[in-house]
Each structure stands twice: as C-alpha cells, then as structure tokens.
Specification:
Radius of gyration: 20 Å
Largest sheet: 4 strands, antiparallel
Number of strands: 6
Strand content: 5-15%
Amino acid sequence: MQDAVRKSLAPLDATGTSEYPAYYDMTLKIAAQKAKLGMDPAQAAQQAASETINSRYVFAGQDGAVSYRVPLRDAQGAAVDAQKVIRQAEGTINSLRPSDIMSTLPAVPGVPLDTIKGYQIRRIQETARWMTAGDESGLELAFIDDDGRLTQVRAANGQPFRRTWAQLQASNAAPDLSAYRATVRGAR
C-alpha cells in the first residue's frame, strides 16, 4: 500500500515541496481505510491521491519532468486556469529578453553585456525549471548553470524572476516564439 501511495504522489514529491510528508500520511490513511472496506490497495491509493492532491493541483514541468504544481484555486479561493498558466510559463521562457534578467555571468572585456545576457538566456531556455513559489502565489524560474547546479534566475532588478498566477493568466495572446526560434537557430 505504501509503495502504491508513493507512486500516486510522485508528481507532488517531484516538486520538492516540504508538504509532501503531510500529504503522504493523509493519503496513506485514506487509502488504508478504502482498502479496509474492500477496495484493491492500488486502486485505493490512486483514489486517495486523487481526493487529496490531484483534485487540488495540476503538475507540470519541462522536458517531461515534473518541477512545479499549479493550484486549481489561489489563496483567495479564485479559480486558476492551470492550462493557461502552463502555456504562458513556457511562453515566458521562450520570449526572455536581455532587459528581463540580471546577468550572473562575469563581465568579459570587449563583449557587450547584452551578448553575455544572450548567452545566459539561451542557457536558461535550454535548461529552465519553473518551481512553485513557497507561498504558492506563482512560479519562480531557475536553470541549470554551466557547473550543473540549479540556479535561480534573477530579474533585472536583482529579485528572483517570478510570475504570479494572475500574471500568467493575464495574457490572451499566444506567446511570440520568433525570438526564441531565432536564438535556437543561431546557437546551432
């Protein structure tokens, strides 16, 4: 039963949330009760996970790996369009401009800062990982740096690069991918 619950809660665990142990315990208790009433343990685990977690969040990430969760309701109880959030989060990565970020790379004599930022943006676009903000108000962007470390992206003002649920739902337009496509073509 424990393995079935772990498997059912794997998307939540993949987000790295500190709440996982509490949800695991709650889900395990619900699944055990369902199994006690005669339900197959694997089915009980799936149903319990659906009742405790999957009805509250949509899990997403880049390249098939789960790295964040989108609540179906924000802290004030308003509905969150998770699919729109996911699309706009991807569009945000693809449309980054040098003016959007602060460079964490060292200055190179004779190389313009926008060129250095352009390299960093390509790296971000190739290895981006959105993560749910600790207060669940939105997403924070990170990437894998040249040393293989998960590094937080800094906005131009030096603060973590973050988008709230409202910001990610606000745009009705499809993201402009032309700059991203040109950057990717130029990097090859």
